[in-house]
Every structure is written in structure tokens, then in C-alpha cells.
Write a sequence for this structure.
């Protein structure tokens, strides 16, 4: 599975295109299967219908845990660093991981959770959060992790969509200087979730929580009573492993479904090769486990490789902006994987937060979630990597399951601002608006993938047609990423950002449609249009144009309500940066909002608004420009 040098990369890439089945069968053979697959791949992007390692039987937790026990029982699976620098770190070995996962799996079983049932996980960054995911996988339940920053409404929507039976949560969470209620938020969500029979509550902050008789249970008490042995459920390669909700350009978030066999093979393969992990190293991915980055590179990828990972409960700015660097020195982190938005925020804080730390344990840096601008790349390389750590700029998506375009650490020559080259197994294609392939180098267009890889999205939970229209219908026989990209003269890829109505705000993926629906619930708002604009720290900021008619209410009050509504309905990370109340929006005769014009206004590019002659009422544009927020 390990690619060791550039020649290996090129050879592996060629082989992966000539004989994809042979290529992936070789990698899959390195895992423990209860029954070998009968056929490597069947696929049809029209439906879409993709199956990998057909009729293979396995349990991913055996590969994450049991497989390592004979030789590595005492090796560290996790170091957990708490929110408070003075708090005590926890060290968890593979043996302890095994015991804790099995106890919790037994609890879930006794609560009536069976193979195929859905379980919701709403927890802070704790080792128990990973135990929860693995406990589900152990018994064949499908986990649906919901990021701890989501509102009660968002939790309700997600639990309802996948009909979760059990919720795993904690009393509260520490995040920087804040103490956040978790259980109370779950309680509010569950007022309208009849599918949920039980809630298991872990104690973290010891804050007071309500206890609903017959429904709520104390996590620690339940685990204590259970055995540390739990036989793994026999799973088919194509059985769902988890659902993870993500925003698209239309409607409510989609439940992206990943399956046991393909996801296992791909996350392990990418973890090994992109980061070139060596035994004994400590890997730290700063993402929250509520996003795909946390699923693939805090939980599954590293555990499949038998690696040691740092789990961090806190935030980069608490107690000060040097916290990341202090943690790196404290635990001697070797590989550090974070998001450009964090890098830019910490750069803005000033070097005085970096210089007190040695950072000499670092071997490799990573970036994920949004394009990294060259300026931030150089700052990261020079000040954090001290000029001698490669940076892997990893491009991928919730739907790809794992890293798809990235340098391989120490192997691929680097170019700041470029995710560089596709991993072996990933066959990219750039197309124009009409779906025609743009060949050659020095070109730009929409990024597609033309051949399946093992962890490609299988479906959107409960609505397969949505999966087809969102990813496989724009261009026939291609998976469309929603991103634009350039391929330079050397064949290197630079991702230029979304070409659909999806925003990337501080690495959080937000559908403009979702923000608009939340804004439109306001009585005084007739209609709204949300667009992104470049933001120095967040990558993109959110600009909302809202039509408000004649009203007695003061403007400031309406704007304040809009902020509150979005926070309550979606979460504070989706709160617009700018809200402008307008009389009308630029619409075409067919009633379509011309977002292109709004985007230009939000970006401050007023001289170049393009053709406005097709608008019903071009004067609305002048009004909007006059009152725009800078
Ligand atoms: C979108 C996917 C995959 C992990 C986190 C985000 C953007 C992701 C990069 C990168 C430029 C990137 C894309 C993509 N993106 N990584 N290295 N360079 N853009 O997962 O929430 O599913 O978002 O994030 O626009 O489509 P996600």
C-alpha cells in the first residue's frame, strides 16, 4: 500500500488507471476480511450504482482495533488534550480503546440497537466520541455524527431524516472560555423526534441536566455494568457505515452515505500515503469529528493504520492564540493537519504567539477544507514548519470520503496554492459548462471524476434520486465535484472554489439556500438572496440581501432578528456577516435572481457588473449599490 518515492507514484498511478480492479484488490488484501470479495467492482454512474469488494464480509472495527492487539495492545491510540491547558491529558492505548468500545457496543445492544439502525452522536471532542462511532460500527449500527455547533433545529432535521433510535451526548461542552449546553439542546430537538427511544448522557461539565425518565441514561453507569468483550457484527462491504449530513446548493442538508469496505480501504490508503505516517509518530488533525475530516483522519484512517492521534477538545484561540503551538510542543506532535482559516487567523494574531515555542517535533504540515492562499502557505511553511516541513494541501469532500488530490509528503514536488496531483486511483477530468472535456495543460474549468474510487458517495440517505441529480446528472457519466479548478503547465491542480451556490466559511460548508430559508422565516422579509464574498480570515463571508416592504419596525431590529433566527435555526457559524435590507432583488423576466450581480456587489466590483439589460427592473441594482455595506 505504501508509495515510497516519485517513481512509485507514477507507476502506481499508471497501474491504477490500466487495471483499477487489480490496483484496489492489492490494497484491500492488506486488511482482515471475514470473507474475501467475489468481484472487485461494479459501477454505473447513470443510476448511480457503485459497489466495491462485492460480497466481501468484514467489520471495520476489527481492522481498527482487534487486528492491532497482538502486537500493539500497549501502543497509544489517542492522546486527549483538554480545553484547559492546566487540565490533565489522557493517554489511551489500543487495549483500552478495545475495552471501551466493546462496553459501549454492549450498552447499545441492550438498548435494542441492531444492525442497520441509526444512532445520532452529538458530543464534544472527547475520546468517548470516537468510542461512540466505533461502538456503532462494532454492532453494525449506522452512526450519524452531528457537529456540536449545530442548533436544536438542525439536530431535529437530521434525526428525523434518518430516524435515529438512540442519541449519544454529554451534559455540556467546554469550548474556549465558554461552557456550552449539549444535553439541553438535544432535549429541545427531541421534543419532535418520536423515533428516539433512548439518550445516553456522558458527564463532562457536570452542569445540571434534565433527566427524562425511561429515556435518558447515564453513560458511565451503563458502561461500567457491561463486558469488555463484544463480538463484531458481520458486515457486507456495501453495508452503510455512517451517514454524514452536508450542505448542497438546494434544500436541506443531504445525508451522505459511506459503506464499510470501500471507506475502510480508501481512508487507510490515503492516510498512509499522503502523510507517509511512520510507526511511533503522533498525528494531529485539528478538525472536529463532526465533519468528514474528523471521521476519516481522526477516527478511521489513523486507527486502521495503528497510528497514534491527538484529540483536542479546545479551540486555537484559548487561552491565547498560541494554544496550537503549545500543544504541539507539549505532546511532541509530528504531523499537524489544519485548515487555512485557522492558519490565517493565527497569522493575524502575530508572531509573538509562535516564537515562544520550538515546534521542532514537526515533520509534516497539512491543509484541508478550502483553497490555501500563497501568502498563508508561506507563513505556515516558514513560521510553523521552520522551512523544513513539506505542506500537503489536500483536496477532497464529504462525498469523496478521503483525500483525492494532494501531494504525497516528501515525494511530490510542492507548489504553494496547488493541491498538486491526483492520488493513484483518482481519474480527474476538467469539463466546460456544457460538459465537454478540456484536455491538455494550462486550462481551467469544472472539476469532475470519471471513474469510481472505493469511498465514493453511494447514496444520499432516503433519497437516491437526490444523489443522482446533485452529483451525477450535471454531466453524464461523470461525478461532478461542484468545484472549479485550473490545471497548470505541469499538470498540477489548483482548486479555485465552488462553482455552485455553496459557501465555504471558515472551512464550514454552507448552502446559500439554507441561510435564505432561515432568513425568509422572518415576518417582515419577503425574500432574500445570500452570496459569498472574499474574507481575509474566513475565506468567504456571508452577505445577505433581504427584501423588506413597508413596515413600522426599525431596521436595526429586523437585522438583529435575522441574525438571531439564523443562529437559532442553523447555528452561529452560518450567521451572515452583512445584512442589507433592500426594496427589490435583480431578477430576470423569468423570475430568476441574478446572483452574479449580487456577488459582484458583495465583492465590491462595481465597475464590471456585466449585462443588466435582461433585468425586469435595472433600477433595483442602483439602489442596492447605493446602500451597500462595505
Ligand atoms: C469542499 C468540500 C474535505 C474536507 C473538508 C471539507 C473545499 C476542501 C480543499 C482544498 C481547495 C478545498 C472544496 C470542496 N475544499 N479541501 N485543499 N483546496 N478547496 O469537506 O465540507 O465536504 O467541503 O471544500 O470546495 O468541494 P466538505
Amino acid at each position: 500500500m505504501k508509495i515510497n518515492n516519485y517513481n512509485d507514484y507514477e507507476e502506481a498511478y499508471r497501474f491504477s488507471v490500466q487495471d483499477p480492479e487489480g490496483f484496489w484488490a492489492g490494497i484491500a488484501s492488506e486488511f482482515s476480511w471475514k470473507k474475501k470479495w467475489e468481484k472487485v467492482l461494479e459501477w454505473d454512474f447513470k443510476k448511480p450504482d457503485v459497489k466495491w469488494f462485492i460480497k466481501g464480509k468484514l467489520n471495520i472495527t476489527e481492522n481498527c482495533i482487534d487486528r492491532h492487539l497482538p502486537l500493539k495492545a500497549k501502543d497509544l491510540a489517542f492522546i486527549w488534550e483538554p480545553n484547559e491547558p492546566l487540565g490533565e491529558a489522557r493517554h489511551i492505548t489500543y487495549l483500552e480503546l478495545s475495552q471501551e468500545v466493546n462496553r459501549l457496543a454492549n450498552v447499545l445492544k441492550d438498548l435494542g440497537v441492531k444492525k442497520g439502525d441509526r444512532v445520532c452522536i452529538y458530543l464534544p471532542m472527547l475520546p468517548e466520541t470516537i468510542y461512540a462511532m466505533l461502538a456503532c460500527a462494532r454492532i453494525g449500527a449506522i452512526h450519524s455524527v452531528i457537529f456540536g455547533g449545530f442548533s436544536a433545529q438542525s439536530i431535529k432535521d437530521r434525526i428525523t431524516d434518518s430516524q435515529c433510535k438512540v442519541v449519544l451526548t454529554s451534559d455540556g461542552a467546554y469550548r474556549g472560555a465558554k461552557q456550552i449546553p449539549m444535553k439541553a439542546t438535544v432535549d429541545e430537538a427531541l421534543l419532535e423526534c418520536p423515533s428516539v427511544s433512548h439518550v445516553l448522557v456522558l458527564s463532562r461539565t457536570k452542569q445540571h441536566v434534565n433527566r427524562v425518565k425511561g429515556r435518558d441514561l447515564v453513560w458511565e453507569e451503563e458502561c461500567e455494568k457491561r463486558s469488555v468483550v463484544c463480538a463484531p457484527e458481520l458486515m457486507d462491504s456495501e453495508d452503510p457505515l455512517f451517514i454524514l449530513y452536508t450542505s448542497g446548493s438546494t434544500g436541506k442538508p443531504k445525508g451522505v452515505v459511506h459503506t464499510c469496505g470501500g471507506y475502510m480501504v480508501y481512508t487507510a490508503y490515503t492516510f498512509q500515503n499522503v502523510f507517509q505516517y511512520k510507526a511511533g509518530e503522533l498525528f494531529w488533525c485539528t478538525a472536529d469529528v463532526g465533519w468528514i475530516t474528523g471521521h476519516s483522519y481522526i477516527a478511521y484512517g489513523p486507527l486502521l493504520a495503528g497510528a497514534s492521534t491527538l484529540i483536542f477538545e479546545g479551540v486555537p484561540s484559548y487561552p491565547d492564540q498560541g494554544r496550537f503551538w503549545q500543544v504541539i510542543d507539549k505532546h511532541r506532535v509530528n504531523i499537524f493537519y489544519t485548515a487555512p482559516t485557522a492558519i490565517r487567523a493565527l497569522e493575524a494574531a502575530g508572531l509573538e504567539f509562535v516564537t515562544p515555542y520550538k515546534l521542532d517535533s514537526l515533520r509534516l504540515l497539512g491543509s484541508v477544507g478550502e483553497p490555501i492562499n500563497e501568502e498563508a502557505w508561506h507563513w505556515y511553511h516558514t513560521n510553523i514548519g521552520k522551512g523544513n516541513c513539506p505542506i500537503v494541501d489536500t483536496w477532497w469532500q464529504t462525498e469523496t470520503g478521503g483525500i483525492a488530490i494532494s501531494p504525497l509528503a516528501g515525494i511530490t514536488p510542492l507548489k504553494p496554492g496547488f493541491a498538486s496531483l491526483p492520488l493513484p486511483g483518482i481519474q480527474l477530468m476538467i469539463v466546460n459548462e456544457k460538459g465537454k472535456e478540456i484536455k491538455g495543460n494550462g486550462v481551467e474549468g469544472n472539476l469532475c471524476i470519471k471513474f469510481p474510487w472505493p469511498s465514493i458517495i453511494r447514496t444520499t440517505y432516503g433519497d437516491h434520486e437526490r444523489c443522482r441529480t446533485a452529483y451525477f446528472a450535471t454531466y453524464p457519466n461523470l461525478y461532478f465535484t461542484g468545484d472549479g479548478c485550473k490545471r497548470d503547465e505541469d499538470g498540477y491542480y489548483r482548486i479555485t472554489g465552488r462553482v455552485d451556490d455553496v459557501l465555504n466559511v471558515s472551512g464550514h460548508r454552507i448552502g446559500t439556500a439554507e441561510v435564505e430559508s432561515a432568513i425568509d422565516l422572518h415576518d417582515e422579509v419577503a425574500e432574500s438572496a445570500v452570496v459569498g464574498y472574499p474574507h481575509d480570515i474566513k475565506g468567504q463571508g456571508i452577505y445577505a440581501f433581504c427584501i423588506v416592504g413597508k413596515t413600522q419596525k426599525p431596521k436595526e431590529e429586523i437585522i438583529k432578528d435575522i441574525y438571531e433566527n439564523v443562529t437559532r435555526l442553523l447555528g452561529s457559524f452560518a450567521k451572515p456577516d452583512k445584512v442589507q435590507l433592500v426594496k427589490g432583488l435583480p431578477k430576470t423576466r423569468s423570475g430568476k435572481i441574478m446572483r452574479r450581480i449580487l456577488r459582484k456587489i458583495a465583492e465590491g466590483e462595481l465597475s464590471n457588473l456585466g449585462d443588466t439589460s435582461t433585468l425586469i427592473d435595472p433600477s433595483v441594482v442602483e439602489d442596492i449599490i447605493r446602500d451597500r455595506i462595505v
